[in-house]
Here is the input.
Amino acid sequence: MTHSGNHRRTSDIDLLTIYEISKVLTSSLDFRQCVQSVLRLLLTQLHMRHALVGLVQSDEQLHILGAAGVPWPMSEAPILDPGMGVISKVIRSGSPIVIPDIAADTNFTNRTGRDPQQLAGVSYVVVPLKLDREVIGILSADRHPDAEQPVNFERDVRILSLVANLLAQTYRLHQSVAADRQVLIEESARLQKQLQGSYDIENVVGRSKRMKEVFADVHQAAPSGATVLLRGESGTGKEAIAHAIHYLSPRAKGPFVKLNCAALPETLLESELFGHEKGAFTGATSERKGRFELAKGGTIFLDEIGDISPAFQAKLLRVLQEQEFERVGGNKTLRADVRLVAATNRNLEEMVQKNEFRADLYFRLNVVTIFMPSLRERKDDIPLLVDFFLDRFNRENRRQLTITPGALEILMQCNWPGNVRELENCIQRAATMTRSSTIREVDMRCQKGQCFSAVLLESAQSRACFPVIGVPVRSAPPARTAPAAPAADPGDEVAAARAPTSERERLVDAMERCGWVQAKAARLLGLTPRQIGYALRKYNVEVKQL
Here is the structure.
């Protein structure tokens, strides 16, 4: 073969080697693994006998990051003093050094422990790894003598310098990624701690006997993997307790995924829980993971579980029994590694008797049951809850509102069929609308004939798991300890005088003021659209189409 032919073949090998090395450096986020693969390529493609990469670390020692062809495992790689031998000269000068015969050169100190009898005629090349003109390490390689093909030192220096540059740039990229990853890890840990603190059982407001019983049950049940069923009326804080169970469990570092089963139709509920494959139905343009997959290693919270259809109950039962499922439109069986916490305000026992709820699913869910008391059953907690909601309102709105004893007494006498959620809305509305720095009796809805509690109470009684005992609202005694409040706005007295007197009239009045838009009327009365719909049917109010 001619000289030009040899040169062309050598150039092709060099290009192929650089190409393969560039692929290796973009194949993994493990820099050590990348380095090791690059060194193996140097041995196989360029017929090197030994090669290593070392980086100068913060202790000013040269730590070997990867090595190939050496007589020791990487776990026993020596730490080298960069102030000695050939390596020290390369680090100081920033230039490559070539030793044609290391056995005859006193600068070669053989600190990697190779057999001295095998060093005769071996050539050695060391090139620097540089970032922004600063030497951060070295790449070294050597060859044994070859009578048929003499060593081309210029070629070796050129290709090793190219490889060293690629390694240095990849190191910079990996350092940047590692720094960003560390920031994300720290931020995730901070948010996790903050979130866990927010839902810590100690932060659930309540000191009454009933709530202490709930807290004791939560502490007892959380460490196990048992399914937990939370029972109680709407607005009693079932979701907060579900969060607390998760963060007190061994799965606390896993995800907490929640889904309101009543908020979706059955067709969407299946896709939402189990996920779907691309093309499973119209609009499924891509594969999508379901809530069970997203909750892997953590907890899934299914709210309003009593509202799912009998057909879907069978599908959910299979997941609970077999711990496996398939995506919609798929045939691959997936494992459900989750802990289930479910909640309902329905009377499941009655539904089972009426064949509206599967008995086998009921027994699967009813492993550990925690009953959430209504606010009527723990009125001792109302002052604590009021302080909590008012403090949060003040922080969010930069206010310093307080509440008079008279206004607090009114809250203590209310029925609260909407429970804690209704109390929260009441405090927020009064705090927003008060013209004073203190929430007074006149700021309460029931003082203006605008309280819809009676309708909600009857609704709660018709749907509750257990009988709901109503407490009549009494006029609050005059405040004795509060500072004198400003005189009430005359407009308030006029509004109170003209206020509708019956619940039906109040409902119709709200609908008329909102142009017969149920959603707006619901917001005005502090209700949900479903509660408004119930009240309209209860009082046989025909909705006008404007």
Q: What stands out?
A: Residues 463-501 have pLDDT under 50 and may be disordered. The radius of gyration is 37 Å.
